[in-house]
Design brief:
The chain is of the alpha+beta class. About 50% of the residues lie in helices and about 20% in strands.
Length: about 525
């Protein structure tokens, strides 16, 4: 796997291109001259600039201390994750996979070449520890495609040392501003290079006025979403973007990335069902099945890991005298035997034709949506009606569950109510930008209900696992006592969740106004 580095930096411009004295910055004991490095970087993208559109940077650079291939993903303003691979003539496979969700089958090719003379200074504290690296970069940019031109500029870059306090950058910026240095207007060198080397457009004739007197260009300008269809599509587009953007994180096995991608697939499927009067289900149903497949692939090991973590935590909470027999070993063996996938298998899915075809299908869905007549309707009517329908179904399922005695039938009814609460939450999320407070309140209420019913369902699943473990232990001649203790505790947790439901539901009913 490629080496990863968290890059926290800020860029500045100065009319005189000089670097002011930084010895007065709080905490800086010395400014060390590290000399000038000659850097030569070629930046790559698709012909339609897919990486640039996603604020993803791919380059091959020689010179300096980190020559090689660099792939950068945005994390927050001024913060990026940079993945590095050794210098080679072709794009390393380790990086190629990380951009696949963005580029698909399109070829990446050189688009811009940047050559920089980097004059480097190290800011160090009294003990000689690096606080930040400051450089003055004299840059020449040459566009490598079409009729692009060249550009030159000088900028100041301040990069925080690994593990440094981000607040230190504020102190440096304060000193720079006092010296007349101002933050750069471009997010990166590449962004500035693309803007300043873009081919100049040919002069066009002035657009003819329409019959209403407005120029044609003005009439076709983007407008703020106003229809029900606009809002549903905005929600679907956000989920599509989340899937694409989380793909590299899933490949890197970053925390919560798999969960986040699964949630995005669920939100899309939920929107298809809730807003069936807006989008043609003959088109969305097959897409929903593919999203269900993807969620299943993502969850091959995830659900088992969550269940194992819950059992492990419950076991850790037991007093030592109540743990009888090789319970921990049994739990580890059980968890390993039920593990159904691997990282390698998941990566193969993300590299597979079926997944990439699904991404293309999602692009077409939001680009050429199968809108029905209701899509043109007012969101206050169309979206609100869909949300009310979903909530009515939740209400019926909760009432059905409350009317039943504790047992398997009630467990199933509560599970169905949990799934419907999740769907209602998602439909209210879609409607919230249009409906405002009432929909936002419903999102909060459904999230609370989903949490309560989720705790109950987790207890049901954990008890099933404990019965399985107890049976295995008994067959092996081991004591099943501890599994029984854990089972009783989980049963009690379910009872508490059921006991809390009537009051919680009464509160939700009183607060619902959509």
């Amino acid at each position: 796997m490629a080496e990863t580095k968290r890059e926290i930096e800020r860029k500045y411009e100065s009319d005189d291109s000089g670097l002011p004295d930084l010895t007065g910055v709080a905490g800086v004991a010395a400014v060390l001259d590290k000399g000038v490095a000659e850097l030569d970087a070629t930046y790559y993208d698709t012909a339609d600039a897919r990486l640039s559109a996603a604020s993803v940077t791919l380059r091959r650079r020689t010179g300096g201390s980190d020559a090689g291939w660099h792939l950068k993903f945005p994390v927050a303003p001024g913060v990026r994750d940079e993945l590095r691979a050794p210098l080679s003539d072709t794009l390393p496979r380790a990086l190629a996979g990380l951009i696949r969700s963005h580029v698909r089958d399109a070829e990446v090719a050189p688009v811009v070449r940047l050559r920089s003379a980097r004059d480097v200074r190290d800011l160090v504290d009294a003990e000689g520890r690096l606080l930040a690296e400051v450089s003055v970069d004299a840059v020449r940019a040459d566009r490598l495609t079409g009729d692009g031109g060249s550009a030159q500029w000088t900028e100041i870059e301040v990069e925080l040392a690994d593990g440094g306090d981000p607040d230190f950058l504020d102190k440096v910026e304060k000193r720079l501003r006092k010296a007349g240095v101002r933050p750069s207007g471009s997010a990166s060198k590449l962004a500035r290079a693309l803007a300043e080397t873009e081919p100049k457009p040919k002069k066009r004739a002035k657009p003819k006025a329409r019959q209403d007197g407005k120029p044609a260009a003005e009439a076709s300008a983007p407008v703020t979403p106003v229809t029900a269809g606009d809002h549903v599509l905005a929600y679907l587009r956000a989920q599509r973007d989340t899937i694409v953007e989380l793909d590299p994180a899933v490949r890197r096995d970053l925390p919560d990335s798999v969960h986040g991608m699964r949630v995005a697939t669920r939100r899309m499927r939920s929107a298809f069902r809730s807003y069936a009067r807006v989008l043609d289900r003959t088109v969305t149903d097959p897409i929903g099945e593919e999203l269900k497949w993807l969620a299943g692939e993502l969850g091959v090991d995830r659900d088992q890991e969550v269940l194992t973590d819950r059992l492990t935590a419950a076991l850790d909470a037991l007093p030592r005298p109540l743990v009888i027999g090789p319970v921990r070993n049994r739990l580890r063996t059980w968890a390993g035997a039920r593990s159904g996938g691997s990282r390698r298998r998941l990566i193969a899915v993300l590299d597979g034709k079926r997944y990439l075809a699904l991404l293309d299908t999602l692009d077409r869905l939001v680009g050429e949506p199968p809108l029905l007549t209701a899509a043109a309707g007012a969101p206050e009517k169309v979206l609100a009606k869909a949300v009310r329908k979903d909530f009515g179904q939740v209400a019926a399922l909760v009432e059905e569950a409350l009317a039943q005695p504790s047992g398997a039938d009630r467990d199933l009814a509560l599970h169905n109510a949990r799934k419907k609460a999740k769907r209602t939450r998602y439909s209210a999320e879609t409607a919230a930008p249009a409906l405002g407070g009432p929909a936002a309140d419903l999102v909060r209420l459904m999230k609370s209900l989903q949490g309560l019913l989720g705790d109950h369902q987790d207890s049901v699943m954990t008890r099933e696992a404990l019965r399985d473990l107890a049976a295995q232990a008994h067959a092996a001649g081991e004591s099943a006592f501890t599994y029984g203790v854990l089972y009783a505790r989980e049963e009690r947790r379910a009872e508490l969740a059921e006991a809390a439901l009537p009051e919680a539901w009464e509160t939700i009913g009183a607060a619902t106004a959509v």
